[in-house]
Amino acid sequence: MTLGLTAVLILLAASVVLVVLFRYLHLPPILAYLCAGILVGPHGIALVPDMEPVRVLAEFGLVFLLFTLGLEFSLPRLAAMKTLVFGLGGAQMILTSAVIGGLALWLGVSIEGAIVIGGMFAMSSTAIGMKLLVDQLEQNSRHGRAAFGVLLFQDLAVVPLLILLPALAGGGQEPLWQTFGWALAKSALVLVGIMIIGRWLLRPMFHEIAAVRSRELFMFTVLLLTLAAAWVTHAAGLSLALGAFLAGMMIGETEYRHQVEGDIQPFRDILLGLFFVTVGMLLDVRVVWDNGGWVALAVLGLLVFKMLLVLGLGRLFRLETGVALRTGLVLSQAGEFAFALLLQAREFSLLDARAAQFALAVVVLSMLLSPLLIRHNGWIAKRLVRGYTRGRDSNLEVIRAEAVNATSLSLGPRLRPGGEAGVTGGHVIICGYGRSGQNLAWMMEQESVPCLALDLDPVRVRDARDAGKPVVYGDADRRDVLEAAGVQRARALVVSFNNVASALRILEITRHLRPDMPVIVRTMDDADLERLKAAGATEVVPESLEGSLMMGSHLLLLLGVPVSRIVTHVRDVRNDRYRMLRGFFHGVYEPEEGGTRAYQERLHSIELTPGARAVGQRLADVHLEEAGVTVSAVRRGGIRGPEPAPETRLAAGDVLVLYGTPEAIDEAEKILLGG
Asked: Which long-range contacts (CB under 8 A, 24 or more apart) does 56-61 make?
């Protein structure tokens, strides 16, 4: 017991130190965990022996890795990206597995081992790839979306592989197809049984658990369901990880998915970290040292082969050469699911020790090299593909078209909704379409002032555009984007997001192109007010100080102070650049202001497809209010009708703008579309 506790403490200490170091180097934590295991494991400095308690923790980490995958499984997302997922992703998975598995078979590996190795190296790292793409703001680029589609298919492909491995171990003299078919049938039976139980019992049970309002009981229930599903699949001769995946799928279909994600995340991250640490402990560095040339050749061959394969497949699926190359660079490494398959293969004795060590070395080294390739994927593409524009031209054309439309609307007098003449002149550019940006756009709409918003959130842009809002995807601190947005003829520009570094870049570009144009910048507090004013901001609005002014104004009004004096106070404060309000006493803990809550109400657009359940029904008959959702607008044929009447009859192609919590919107989507 003492030895096991000591080992866990050493693993945790090494992990903490290396995670801090890797975070300082802007590298994913998964690499830190792998290096920690290699360093302190039995094949490193041997501070931690290969112990059963550590392996048990690793097994639990694998269970929760697959549970998370099932929890995030989304059929609508699959449908929306079916070409990339099933086309590009399926082709990449099949061809990579076939080629690498065939090579392993040619080198003398058994057919079972060749299947495992082919599946291992066909996988790529979701944790590393998506983490670095998000850090580089490339997750929504063309190559980012293509990489995500392929990774999504790879996640799905883990399930049949987890079914196949126990079948390979117990196949005996039966043909492989027969063995796999029987395992698949048994898995389908278990799947149907678990899903039926989950569909009829899970939701009422969670409803009762939630009514108790005990977070501990809720977490224990989630753990119970996860481990129970894993036990059922294991008892049926399948893998523990498959049961965890099914449990995640069941919970993901309920309205409690978001709560589960939040509650399970700390627990899951700890176990996943220990899982990757134990994987690192398995690597025998002597194998790498003794076979350094072959390992290096295998790593280089894997990276180049997967990159070229994705490049070729990307071109077949009509991706630009540069985009296909960047996608290949993101997907060239092996991934964390390779470890899952390797551990399962070791458990079922499908790979001999030497082959397993060699494969593990290639996987680990390819993952260690992948941040270098992903970080510089754009630079590599520009050097290798002549004339590659990194996808800017097509997006700039969209921005330019919207800016021209906004300019045309600004010519001549405009009428406000009440029939009075509105403001004339150019359009307003709003950088950022978050809460503040949307409020600004609404105020401009009330005065019939055309505006164009730039935002980097693709979901927000898509929903807003579906609702008929003037929003485009674009990075506002790029000169070509601002030029395409019509900054030379704009009436004003507003930076509505709280990012001082980006605001300074926007100010520099704007002042170079339009020294005379008013620019308003939003900040959280007064810390950077003077720097922004010096950079050329016409006005700087510190959100926390403005909030204090409004609260003080309301308080003085309630106390009977004349409105004129209140207005004078507010004007004086603003004219003095908030100097009277600047500075405050900090406590031990200063809560972050302006943060968003996980369950905050939001707007979301849903299009009614021809086969949707709500088509032909009156809005009142759909009963969306029972789901906790209100319909703020209905867009039909390019015309947006706010606050639609209950008698409005819904038609195919209508876009409904819903307002509610994420869980309520999910439920409303099921009511409207069916399912």
From this structure: 57/8, 57/271, 57/274, 57/275, 57/278, 58/274, 58/275, 58/277, 58/278, 58/279, 58/343, 59/240, 59/343, 60/271, 60/275, 61/271, 61/272, 61/273, 61/274, 61/275, 61/276, 61/278
Which residue, 160, 163, 259, is CA-closest to 206?
Answer: 259
Residue with tokens 């065939």: 102
Strands 492-495 vs 519-523: parallel, antiparallel or unpaired: parallel
Q: Which two tokens stand for residue 387?
A: 């004339």
Assign 49 to helix, strand or coil: coil
DSSP 429-473: EEE--SHHHHHHHHHHHHTT--EEEEES-HHHHHHHHHTT--EEE
pLDDT tens string 201-229: 777 787 777 777 777 788 788 888 878 87
Q: Where are the alpha helices (DSSP H) in 283-335?
A: 285-290, 292-316, 321-331
DSSP 597: P
Residue 663 near residue 627 (C-beta atoms within 8 A)? no
Distance (Å, whole) CA 42 – CA 357: 14
pLDDT digit string (tens) for 565-576? 888 877 777 666
With beta carbons less than 8 A apart as the criterion, state whether 325 and 380 touch.
yes
pTM: 0.61
Of 6, 58, 60, the residue nearest 34 (C-alpha): 58
Contact 657, 633 (CB under 8 A): yes
Q: Is 606 helix (H, G, I), strand (E, B) or coil?
A: strand
Number of C-beta neighbours around residue 505 at 10 A: 17
Helices (H), 198-214: 203-212
Burial of 380 (0-12, 13-18, 19+ CB in 10 A): middle
Closest CA to 39 of 56, 57, 17, 14: 14
Cα distances (Å, whole numbers) of residue 392 to 137, 322, 464, 653: 14, 12, 21, 30
Helix (H) or strand (E) holding 215: helix 215-235
With vertex at residue 627, the alpha carbon angle to CA 626 and CA 633, rounded to the nearest 5 degrees, is 95
Of 635, 637, 639, nearest in space to 657 by CA: 635
Strand order in the sheet with 451-455: 471-473, 451-455, 428-431, 492-495, 519-523, 539-542
Phi, psi of 421, rounded to the nearest 5 degrees: -70, 135
- Report the relative pairing of strands 630-636 and 639-642 from DSSP bridges: antiparallel
> 409 versus 40: which is more confidently predicted?
40
Helices then strands, counting H and E runs in the chain, come out as 30, 10
- The DSSP code for 624 is G
| Sole residue written with tokens 């003492």 | 2
Q: What are phi and psi of 355, to 5 degrees?
A: -65, -40
- Residue 130 CA to residue 132 CA, distance in Å, equals 5
Q: How many residues comprise the chain? A: 675
* Cβ–Cβ < 8 Å for 153, 89: yes
Q: What is the CA radius of gyration of the chain?
A: 29
User: Cα separation of 178 and 180, whole Å?
Assistant: 5
pLDDT score recorded for residue 601:
66
State the amino acid at position 603 in one-letter form. L
Residue 419, pLDDT > 50, answer no
- Say which residues have a Cβ less than 8 Å from residue 592's Cβ, sequence separation at least 6: none
Q: Of 372, 283, 374, which is closest to residue 36 (Cα–Cα)? A: 283
Please count the other Cβ atoms lying within 10 Å of the Cβ belonging to residue 14.
Answer: 25
**Which residue would you say has higher pLDDT here, 623 or 405?**
623
